[in-house]
Hints:
Helix content of chain A: 55-70%
InterPro entries (chain B): ATP_synth_b/b'su_bac/chlpt, ATP_synthase_B_chain
Number of helices of chain A: 7
Membrane topology (chain B): Single-pass membrane protein
Largest sheet of chain B: none
Oligomer: heterodimer
Number of helices of chain B: 2
Number of strands of chain A: 0
Keywords (chain B): ATP synthesis, Cell membrane, CF(0), Coiled coil, Hydrogen ion transport, Ion transport, Membrane, Transmembrane, Transmembrane helix, Transport
Shape of chain A: globular
GO molecular function, one term (chain B): proton-transporting ATP synthase activity, rotational mechanism
Shape of chain B: rod-shaped
Organism (chain B): Ruegeria meonggei
Strand content of chain B: under 5%
Radius of gyration of chain B: 68 Å
Order of helices and strands of chain B: HH
Largest interface: A-B, 55 and 47 residues
Amino acid sequence: MASETTAAEGSSLVFHPMDQFIVKPLFGDGAIAWYTPTNVTLWLFLAIAAVFALLVLSTSKRAIVPTRMQSVAELAYGFVYKMLEDICGKDGVKYFPYVMTLFMFIVCANFLGLIPTSFTTTSHFAVTIPLALAVFLTVTILGFVKNGAAFLGLFWVSSAPLALRPVLAIIELISYFVRPVSHSIRLAGNVMAGHAVIKVFAGFAAIAVISPVSVLAITAMYGLEVLVAFIQAYVFTILTCVYLKDALHPSH
Amino acid sequence: MATEPISEEVVGTCVDSHGSAIGMPQLCFDWFPNQVFWLVITLVVIFLVLSRVALPRIAAILAERQGTITNDLAAAEDLKAKAVEAEEAYNKALADARAEAQRIAAEARAEIQSGLDDAIALADAEIAAKAAESEKAIADIRASALDSIQVVAKDTAAELVTALGGEADADAVSGAVDAQMKG
């Protein structure tokens, strides 16, 4: 297989697994300024449309006995609501629209990204870092507003022996500031890796001998990506809830 | 990764002249402002749609459904209680009817019994009267038979006496027959 690959690479087999992530202007091909409508814009707006269709259009009939799509909307609502309530308690419920926005955006963007030839917005750090930073800033500000200086108790592990506490405080502080990094890179990394791997397998499909294997591998990866698309949205949301809980109840 | 020959600054620092990515497009900071700008718009729009329209509506639907379910359950509970009540009433009516039927049957039986008793008593009395009458008749017949026998005996005795050549004294014969018959 390796010899075939190297042989083919000379002729037509070229891998560009990262080309799918290139940002292009929608109209013309000039430079990309901050306001230029790009493929990012298109797929972000499609995510809005998906969220709108899923949560607003499907519930327009307000049926007591729900239609299929309304059930999905209610399921998504109940899923995130219960998650938030279980983790943050009753006083976390007022941040539900915020958490729901994050979940619905990520889940829709992830699944839109699974459409072949689409652009996956959540595979970009430029998208996930603002999301994670927003959560980080919200949680930090909320923590200080709600608890004042007591929020710093988050870093002062009162259940540990006194001698250990300063060390633990440093570790806790570092882990606190690493949160937005891991939070954002986890999402973008997972989504990007899966898409890139699918693209690599797709490159191998050009070789007739191994193309069946390649197609099978793409199918399997796609299945895995469907799982990842949901699980990463879930993980992002549940971590948001956990961070929110820290802000609302900072004691360990 | 795309390892095409890099021709600088034709399309940008992130894309080479063939339109392929240089390194990771994710790390192309030229595009960051654009992506962040549209992301913020997207998030604001989604947030407004959710918090203004979608979430209150879904919450209302869920609450309404919960209310309907609660009401229906209560109604079902009511109906069940009513059914139990109706069954009790039915059972009671059944028991009443059965008691009534028994009472009527007993009454009828008593009535029939008393009628029967009367008839029996009447029949007994009649039978007794008839028996007494018959007894009297029998006694009469017996008495008249005895008299007839006496007459026949006297006549026979007188005839016998006459046949034997004697002179039949009526009184003597009669006395002799009486004495014989008493004997």
